[in-house]
Amino acid sequence: MGKVYLVGSGPGDPELISLKAYRLIKEADVILVDNLVLGVKTLIPVDKEVIDIGKIAGKHKLSQDGINELLVELSAKYDTVVRLKGGDPYIFGRGGEEAAVLKAHGVEFEVVSGITSAVAVPASFYIPLTFRGISSSVTIITGHEMEEKDESLNWDALVNLKGTLVILMGVGNLAKNVESLLGHGMRADTPVAVIEKGFTVDARLVTGTLQNIVDVAKDENVKPPAVIVIGDVVGVREQLKLLTNRV
Amino acid sequence: MGKVYLVGSGPGDPELISLKAYRLIKEADVILVDNLVLGVKTLIPVDKEVIDIGKIAGKHKLSQDGINELLVELSAKYDTVVRLKGGDPYIFGRGGEEAAVLKAHGVEFEVVSGITSAVAVPASFYIPLTFRGISSSVTIITGHEMEEKDESLNWDALVNLKGTLVILMGVGNLAKNVESLLGHGMRADTPVAVIEKGFTVDARLVTGTLQNIVDVAKDENVKPPAVIVIGDVVGVREQLKLLTNRV
Fold first, then answer.
1. From the CA atom positions of chain B, what is the Rg in Å?
2. Can A34 be counted among the known catalytic residues?
3. A–B CB contacts, 8 A cutoff, strictly below
4. Whether residue B73 sits in one domain with residue B130
5. Are A62 and A90 in contact (CB under 8 A)?
6. Which range has the worst mean pLDDT, A40-49, A97-106, A129-138, A237-246?
7. Do A208 and A101 sit in the same domain of this protein?
8. Boundary (domain end) residue, out of A71, A91, A112
9. Enclosing domain of residue B77
10. Percentages of chain B per state (helix, strand, coil), in multiples of 5
């Protein structure tokens, strides 16, 4: 029976992958990928056996149960299975669920942490998630998660924390989430940044306030994937940004 | 005038540094380090010029202002200055403050994100910060920050969020912080993990509940640095941990 590595590939820049992840990609007998950005895919040797979950499933994505089963199956066939994920496996990456299934089947696994997009994508646009005197906490949530009733967030607490809020996978529910934050008393002039397709050639920053970001994002036709940052650290960007071509 | 790279070296495992950080270490004309774990230091070529801030300042650590000045000075002397930090520069790493000073002096800089200890150290002891049905938010704070009145945290909100709470640099204030959480109504049986010296040969996990963790940490003589995780995800560890020598 083989070993499964649940590996974070970082925020999309192939140079922001860890030395360990890169070594495992080279050593793997098989690599399971889905929705990796092109840059990260270029790190995979051309003769490597790669299973692209998106392609297997066609238009319909393979369910999480299907992925879990596939990992267990692959561990029976191969010595070294690498499940390559965007960002970090344990920051809303379903790494815990996959690990639990592997453990339940007696399959050896190891989690290799990655640089989460929640931190690196804002950094690439001069937004630090913490800044002395401005933010003393960082909270990361996901836009997807909120649709499930049993995991409903305490918006009141989120607002009262007055720290930096990062929403991953939050484009689809942006209007709903902004409404919740405003409804629970977050300042309408709280700065918001939406960063689309971080670390790709199409990376783009759209900024506004809690009051107008829904309209701005609509006008700018913002699409997933994006990292959303809400809080006064977004304003620090004006202080830090350099005059470069990109930004 | 040179360029300053504010580089995250990750959680301490030399293999969890990014390809970019590793490249910059090799390309640097000078590297500024402080409190890096030994493993990461071994990545630095022996003939490289290294300034160890701890050693300059002797027993008294160089102040943040002193470090900022030094970075500006070095940028005038060298083409490529690497400021190597533990974890990620923007997760309570003072990267924002250093970037702001560099910008104010017209010095070109770039932040290279790293894997934060907040995520990777718990992962190394089978604790996922998020888990479906158990935690729908992750909040990272620091134990140090809280001593400053102007950045006082809203403990009530932290408790009511009912997500995963990670405290960095929190050993010194553990008793005070636990008292605040209990005082604001967090369940006394909330699981707590304190992970000391993550990714070193002395890495150690101590677990308990909010009720007893202060005594447990005292009995076990827990010392900084440590990552503290508070929340039900700590209990997931029992489901995920493998039978290995280490844990």
1. 19
2. yes
3. 207
4. no
5. no
6. A237-246
7. no
8. A112
9. 3-112
10. 35, 25, 40
Contact between A19 and A115 under an 8 Å Cβ cutoff? The reply is no
Are residues A183 and A227 both part of a single domain? yes
Assigned token pair, B98: 């250093």
State how beta strands B3-8 and A226-230 pair: unpaired
CB B84 within 8 A of CB B137: no
Considering the domain architecture, whether residues A98 and A54 belong to the same structural domain is answered as yes
Q: Note whether B189 and B143 are same-domain residues.
A: yes
Is A145 in Cβ contact with B141 (below 8 Å)? no
CATH code at A52? 3.40.1010.10
Are residues A156 and B160 in contact, defined by beta-carbon separation less than 8 angstroms?
A: yes
CATH number at residue B178: 3.30.950.10
- Compute the distance between CA of residue B148 and CA of residue A171 in angstroms, rounded to an integer: 35
Residue A115 neighbours by CB under 8 Å, 6+ apart: A8, A10, A11, A16, A18, A87, A88, B8, B18, B88, B113, B114, B115
DSSP-assigned letter for residue A150: G
Q: CB-based contact (8 Å) between B26 and chain A? A: no
pLDDT grade, residue A151 (50/70/90)? low
- What mean pLDDT is reported for chain A? 92
Q: Which two tokens stand for residue B137?
A: 């938010």
Kindly state whether residues A108 and A128 are assigned to the same domain.
no
Tens digits of per-residue pLDDT, A223-246? 999 999 999 999 999 989 875 544
Asked if B22 is an interface residue toward chain A (Cβ–Cβ < 8 A), one would say yes
Residues A233 and A130 both lie in one domain? yes
Query: Given an 8 Å threshold on Cβ–Cβ distance, is A119 in contact with B153?
Result: no
The enclosing H or E element of B96 equals helix B95-104
Closest CA relative to residue A177, chosen from A209, A135, A146, A215: A146
Whole-model pTM: value is: 0.95
* Burial (CB count within 10 angstroms: exposed 0-12, middle 13-18, buried 19+), residue A218: exposed
> Same domain, yes or no, for A203 and A138?
yes
**Total structural domains in chain B?**
2
H or E element: which one contains B66?
helix B64-77
Question: Which amino acid appears at position A111 of this protein?
Answer: V
